[in-house]
């Protein structure tokens, strides 16, 4: 473990530069924004040319896409899935629902802000974001990874108590 | 000294050729989909990313050993394959030993994935081993047809005897077709990707593997791609005089395989085994009969 740490210290910039070219996104789509993903992946917009490919299990994936509104019920699964993923891992929030609840602003079952419960690296604005916006979000994430600024997973480990307290408040664990 | 160096470097060479073939395949699939596609070195980037993951989740000792067995068995198999112009592990490459060693990797992976306890992994393993039951039969019949024809099991001799366009593909087309279908099944391409099946069993045996484990599995897979294509090249495409021709012939095999892979849907497991035991087996038996009559 220590050898790996020292290696990582020395080569972290090179590693980040290579890591950003290979991002696997999780096939776990929570809400309506997911309908923008098929055109993003397939022939017209072709996300695979940036190395972004859909993958099916949480153990293999790097990006968690939260595609729209988050129910209280969904949040429980979302947290499980996020904690199963291996770091470095990144979260992308889709659309206005993840920012402020969107059209479900006053609902009893829908949460308003995602980043109280999970650390979000990139928000994509819009309802829904178009494939161009989604690709722009991916490019922003790649830029952040390259600059070493996409540290949501570190933030989650460091502020674990804060996130857990927020999650418990909603889920009443 | 030089021979030992070649032996050490052969798996590395096989790994990079496998990476190239995989990258080429992804690019080609993208072009058939009318996409631009990832860069050619994308599989290498994926492996580097997976190996640089911070944590690893283990479900037991066998779970850790599974990928190691896969990579180790793949390296051993590569050392038994003849490489044009270089001396490999055995001076008399034995086809029968090769056919035995080739399946160790899958068995290691089955043992490893079995310990994860994920039902998807168990289903994936069951499907993978059942599929192996299917494609081994035509593969062994096709291989033994060549043994009957040449009177030897030496893979290096197979290459020399086929030189000068005496390819088995032209002289024994039926056996070559059966061998191709069996190799195709061994590669796990559509319609035989039953055990990976992301939509049904979430990548089957790999479902609990992530991070460095998956990186090792992908290294093993790259070497496996090299092995399968090289095996078909040695048996039916006349081997090669130098390494460049060898890689080009492997590329040809991959191109034909990808053409089928891109357009076909997926079999159910019972249909796949029924298919393997019916068509390639009958074709291989016909080829064997022709060789037996023709002497």
From TrEMBL, chain A:
SUPFAM superfamilies recorded: HydA/Nqo6-like
Entry coiled-coil feature ranges: none
All residue ranges annotated as the NADH:ubiquinone oxidoreductase-like 20kDa subunit domain in the record: 29-140
An example Gene Ontology CC term for this record: respiratory chain complex I
Keyword annotations of the record: Quinone
Gene3D superfamilies per UniProt: 3.40.50.12280
Highest taxon, organism lineage: Bacteria
Gene Ontology biological process terms in this record: aerobic respiration; electron transport coupled proton transport
GO molecular function: iron-sulfur cluster binding; NADH dehydrogenase (ubiquinone) activity; quinone binding
UniProt-listed PANTHER family: NADH DEHYDROGENASE, NADH DEHYDROGENASE [UBIQUINONE] IRON-SULFUR PROTEIN 7, MITOCHONDRIAL
Protein name per the record: NuoB-like protein
Organism whose genome encodes this protein: Caldisericum exile (strain DSM 21853 / NBRC 104410 / AZM16c01)
Organism lineage string: Bacteria, Pseudomonadati, Caldisericota/Cryosericota group, Caldisericota, Caldisericia
TrEMBL record, chain B:
Subcellular location: Membrane
Upper taxonomic lineage: Bacteria, Pseudomonadati, Caldisericota/Cryosericota group, Caldisericota, Caldisericia
Organism the protein comes from: Caldisericum exile (strain DSM 21853 / NBRC 104410 / AZM16c01)
Signal peptide interval: none
Pfam families in UniProt: NADHdh
InterPro entries noted in UniProt: ComplexI_Subunit1 (IPR052561), NADH_UbQ_OxRdtase_su1/FPO (IPR001694)
Protein name: NuoH-like protein
Keywords, sorted A to Z: Membrane, Transmembrane, Transmembrane helix
Residues annotated as transmembrane: 6-24, 61-83, 95-113, 125-147, 167-187, 214-237, 243-264, 276-294
GO CC, one annotated term: plasma membrane
Keyword RNA-binding carried by entry: no
Bilayer topology: Multi-pass membrane protein
Superkingdom, natural source: Bacteria
PANTHER family: FORMATE HYDROGENLYASE SUBUNIT 4 (PTHR43359), FORMATE HYDROGENLYASE SUBUNIT 4-RELATED (PTHR43359:SF1)
């Amino acid at each position: 473990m220590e050898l790996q740490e020292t290696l990582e210290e020395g080569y972290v910039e090179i590693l980040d530069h290579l890591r950003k070219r290979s991002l696997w996104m999780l096939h776990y789509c929570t809400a309506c924004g997911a309908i923008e993903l098929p055109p993003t992946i397939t022939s017209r917009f072709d996300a695979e040319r940036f190395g972004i490919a859909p993958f099916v299990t949480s153990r293999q994936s790097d990006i968690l896409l939260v595609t729209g509104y988050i129910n209280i019920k969904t949040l429980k699964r979302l947290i499980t899935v996020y904690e199963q993923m291996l770091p470095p891992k990144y979260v992308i929030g889709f659309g206005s629902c993840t920012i402020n609840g969107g059209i479900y602003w006053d609902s009893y079952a829908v949460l308003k802000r995602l980043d109280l419960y999970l650390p979000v690296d990139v928000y994509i604005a819009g309802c829904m974001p178009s494939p161009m916006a989604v690709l722009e979000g991916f490019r922003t994430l790649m830029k952040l990874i390259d600059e070493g600024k996409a540290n949501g997973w570190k933030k989650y480990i460091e502020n674990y108590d804060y996130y857990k307290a927020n999650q418990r408040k909603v889920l009443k664990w | 000294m030089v021979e030992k160096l070649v032996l050490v470097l052969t798996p590395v060479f096989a790994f990079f050729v496998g990476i190239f073939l995989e990258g080429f395949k992804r690019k080609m699939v993208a072009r058939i989909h009318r996409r631009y596609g990832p860069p050619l070195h994308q599989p290498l980037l994926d492996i580097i990313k997976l190996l640089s993951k911070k944590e690893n989740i283990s479900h037991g000792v066998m779970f850790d050993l599974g990928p190691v067995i896969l990579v180790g068995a793949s390296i051993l198999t590569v050392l038994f394959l003849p490489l044009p112009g270089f001396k490999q592990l055995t001076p008399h490459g034995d086809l029968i030993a090769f056919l035995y060693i080739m399946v160790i990797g899958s068995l290691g992976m089955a043992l490893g994935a079995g310990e994860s306890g994920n039902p998807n992994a168990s289903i994936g393993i069951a499907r993978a081993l059942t599929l192996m039951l299917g494609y081994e039969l035509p593969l062994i019949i096709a291989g033994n047809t060549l043994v009957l024809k040449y009177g030897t099991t030496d893979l290096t001799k197979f290459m020399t005897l086929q030189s000068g366009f005496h390819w088995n593909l032209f002289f024994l087309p039926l056996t070559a077709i059966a061998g191709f279908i069996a190799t195709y099944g061994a590669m796990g391409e559509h319609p035989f990707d039953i055990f990976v099946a992301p939509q049904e069993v979430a990548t089957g045996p790999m479902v609990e593997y992530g991070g460095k484990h998956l990186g090792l599995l992908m290294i093993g897979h790259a070497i496996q791609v090299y092995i399968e294509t090289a095996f078909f090249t040695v048996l039916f495409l006349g081997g090669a005089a130098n390494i460049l021709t060898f890689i080009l012939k492997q590329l040809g095999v991959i191109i034909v395989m990808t053409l089928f892979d891109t357009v076909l849907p997926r079999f159910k497991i019972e249909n796949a085994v029924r298919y393997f035991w019916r068509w390639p087996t009958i074709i291989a038996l016909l080829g064997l009969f022709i060789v037996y009559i023709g002497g």
